[in-house]
Design goal:
mainly alpha, two-stranded antiparallel ribbon, about 65% helix, Pre-mRNA-splicing factor SYF2, 2 strands
């Protein structure tokens, strides 16, 4: 009886989750269709009055909207891949991307900063001022971390998930192949090289004898 009730509860939870997921998808689809319909209606009204729809739409944007849009475009341009230059640039780009993905806990940060700058009573009854160097360290700091500065379990879990994500992404890329100086050059660029390799895989077994005859000079 107990096992059957657990199965029913599990089934009900699963069905409720499915309904909630379907409802959220339907809501998003409805909002998207409503927005498209409103935009189409505005375009039709603008065409009926011989009005430039883009101009009317741009007049509805505020300065904050324009600044956010320009910032978005600048970030997109900064993330744009301009081709390979050197490995230092790739490392810097990867570092910037990882930093941008970090979501710091500002509340906890302020609490730690306040604790570091507070005064504490020592054992002899005097006030001992804790230096901010314990929190804001420089390159010449001799302060070391203590047990209270250890990261919590959530931070460790985030680090583990990030490392696993990087490993999964790294596994999707093919290994960089070294260039063979002794290999026969039958291409004019990288795209042509890939095309020639595809042709070779498909037809080399049929043209091996002809190619050998050409190399020996015995071809008819």
């Amino acid at each position: 009886m107990r096992i059957e009730s657990q199965k029913l509860n599990r089934k009900e939870v699963h069905s409720e989750f499915s309904r909630h997921k379907q409802t959220s998808k339907e809501s998003m689809a409805h909002e998207r269709k409503l927005k498209e319909a409103q935009e189409l209606q505005a375009k039709t009204a603008a065409e009926a009055t011989n009005t430039d729809y883009d101009r009317v739409k741009n007049l509805t944007y505020t300065i904050d909207d324009v600044e956010r849009w320009e910032e978005k475009l600048s970030q997109k341009e900064a993330r744009k891949d301009h081709g390979f230059s050197d490995y230092a640039q790739i490392a810097a780009k990867k570092y910037s991307k990882m930093i941008a993905d970090i979501k710091p806990d500002l509340t906890k940060y302020r609490q730690q900063a306040n604790i570091a700058s507070m005064t504490h009573g020592s054992s002899d009854g005097t006030q001992e001022i804790v230096s901010e160097d314990a929190f804001y360290r420089s390159a010449h700091s001799l302060s070391y971390a203590n047990h209270s500065a250890a990261p919590d379990e959530l931070a460790v879990d985030r680090l583990v998930k990030d490392i696993e994500k990087q490993r999964a992404q790294r596994g999707q890329f093919s290994r960089r192949r070294a260039f063979d100086d002794e290999d026969e050059v039958t291409y004019i660029n990288e795209r042509n090289m890939r095309f020639n390799k595809k042709i070779s895989r498909a037809y080399d077994k049929y043209t091996a004898d002809i190619k050998a005859n050409f190399e020996r000079g015995t071809a008819l």
